[in-house]
Every structure is written in structure tokens, then in C-alpha cells.
Design brief:
globular, 4 helices, alpha+beta, 10-stranded antiparallel beta sheet
Length: about 250
């Protein structure tokens, strides 16, 4: 089994936002699609797990944008996985240009859970033995457990049927959309996210409404935004996001 899955691609027009930079939600979609294709080759895709009444859920994402990829530029997306302490999978991503320069790097944590109650299960009973070689170490996880009492901006959104994925819950990419929509327009247009850390706490389902809240700290050369997403009816927290933004050259 090839440990690294490689996908050749060109950045499509639909992946570019109003600020001319790659959209974070589209990045996460590309990561998810590449990981799913490798899982399919291993026989552990979402469809394979469903036959065991199990499902994969993403617990965390840590994304670093080192250099913005340009429209139609030839790119190579690499992803590889390894189990950690039989509890979850570490899923790495790297987007490089033809010169081998890394433009974007990311880490995801995938957990295998029971489909009927979302309780985590150990990996080894459900994955082939050949896939159970553990990681030698776990990358440092960015602190992302803020519990803020006050926010600078809040926005309300309806959960749409279109937001759901195969697991019948809101797909992880939607949380980044909700988070960023709560930001002032000048940040979204004049800045680009160079670090995006997402912690998924609870699942959300259709129908329903959520509140996207954000606290903004303007620093010397960057903007730090700390987000929390809540279910509107009971204020249960669904996710935390911490993002670092830098000014786009020429803005």
C-alpha cells in the first residue's frame, strides 16, 4: 500500500475568494476529497465504514498557508495517514508547486465513531492490520479551547439541507464559512488567513439555527480572530476556531 496519496490538480476559479486568495472552505473540501480517495483504496472509506455501522468524523484541522496558490497553477496535493495510540488517525496534507515549494500544509484528526450514537471506537478492530503502524510522534496541537464571555460580532444562520454530508450532519467545511461570515468585510477583503485552527466539539443537524460569534484582536502586523459557534436554541457550543490573518500585499 502506498503510504502517500498524490493528486495532481490546478486551482479552479471557484476556489478563489473575493480577495483573490484561495478559500479556506474549498481547501478543506480538497483535503477531504483526497483523504477519501486514499481511504477508498485502503477499503476504509465512509461507505466501507457504513457497512460496519461506523463513520469517520473530523475532530480538528490545523491549516497553515505559506504562500497563496495562483489560479490554474499546477499543484500537487499529498496526503498520508497514521494511527495514534489506537484512538484516532493523524491525517497530514501538503500542497506543493512544481518546484517542490510547499504552499499549504495541514493536519487533521479523524476519529472513528459508532453511527448510531457517535461514540468513539478503537481503530484496530475495524482497520486492516497493515494500516495500524502507529505514528512515531503526534504533532503539537494548537491551543484552541477558548471560552469567551464577550464577542465583537455575531451572525445567525439557518442550517440548510445542503450543508449536510453522508453522515447526515453538517459538513466540517461549513463551520469555516459560518465563522468567517461573522467577520467585518474589511478583514475578509484586505487580509488572508495564514493559520486556521478548527476544533469540532459537537455535531449539528438539519433543521436548526446557529450563532457564529467572533472576538477580534488587532496586532502589530496581523489580526487574530477567535470564533465560537453555538446552537441557537440552547447556546451549546459546536466549534471553536482561531485564525491569524495578514494584510494582502497591495491592499
Amino acid at each position: 500500500m502506498d503510504k502517500i496519496f498524490t493528486q495532481k490538480l490546478n486551482l479552479p476559479y471557484s476556489a478563489i475568494g473575493a480577495n483573490g486568495q484561495v478559500r479556506m472552505d474549498r481547501l478543506l473540501n480538497m483535503f477531504q476529497d483526497a483523504a477519501a480517495m486514499q481511504c477508498d483504496k485502503f477499503g476504509i472509506s465512509g461507505f466501507d465504514m457504513a457497512k460496519q455501522q461506523l463513520k469517520w468524523v473530523v475532530s480538528r484541522y490545523q491549516v497553515q498557508t505559506h504562500k497563496n496558490p495562483e489560479w490554474l497553477a499546477p499543484l500537487e496535493l499529498n496526503t498520508w495517514r497514521s494511527p495514534w495510540k489506537n484512538l484516532y488517525e493523524l491525517r497530514h496534507f501538503s500542497i506543493v508547486n512544481p518546484a517542490g515549494e510547499e504552499l499549504i500544509s495541514a493536519l487533521g484528526i479523524w476519529i472513528l465513531v459508532k453511527a448510531n450514537n457517535s461514540k468513539p471506537v478503537r481503530l484496530s478492530p475495524h482497520l486492516p492490520e497493515a494500516l495500524m503502524t502507529p505514528a512515531t510522534s503526534c504533532p503539537e496541537l494548537v491551543k484552541n479551547d477558548h471560552d469567551l464571555d464577550e464577542f465583537d460580532h455575531e451572525s445567525e444562520f439557518k442550517i440548510r439541507a445542503h450543508d449536510l454530508d453522508l453522515n447526515q450532519h453538517v459538513n466540517n467545511t461549513v463551520y469555516t464559512q459560518w465563522a468567517m461570515e461573522a467577520l467585518p468585510a474589511n478583514i475578509l477583503i484586505e487580509f488572508m488567513p495564514i493559520d486556521c485552527n478548527v476544533s469540532f466539539i459537537k455535531e449539528s443537524f438539519y433543521p436548526g439555527k446557529i450563532i457564529s460569534s467572533v472576538k477580534i484582536d488587532h496586532q502589530r502586523d496581523t489580526v487574530l480572530s477567535r470564533h465560537s459557534i453555538f446552537l441557537k436554541k440552547n447556546r451549546v457550543k459546536l466549534a471553536n476556531l482561531t485564525m491569524t490573518w495578514k494584510k494582502i500585499n497591495g491592499q
